[in-house]
Amino acid sequence: xxxxxxxxxxxxxxxxxxxxxxxxxxxxxxxxxxxxxxxxxxxxxxxxxxxxxxxxxxxxxxxxxxxxxxxxxxxxxxxxxxxxxxxxxxxxxxxxxxxxxxxxxxxxxxxxxxxxx
Length: 117
Known about the structure:
alpha+beta, two-stranded parallel ribbon
């Protein structure tokens, strides 16, 4: 799986002043099914996100991307989401830019738990 450019939703420079970067990751709808089939992982598009091999591959890709970044810019914790972002989910307007407030509200419990560890 190839990492793509990430857009921070909630980071140390955000309004909450969090000390490190966390990531809410969404699978690539075109690449993920191909990768899963190649590795013998079956199921609907959302199910592989919970598979251990998928989790390990995503963590490996994030670590590889982090290796090129300064420590402060590296992802410290991540959550692999099983659903895509879309205008229907409310997380993207028709212009396809992220609605950070909607995402933060939807995943607030996870985001807060990342910093409570």
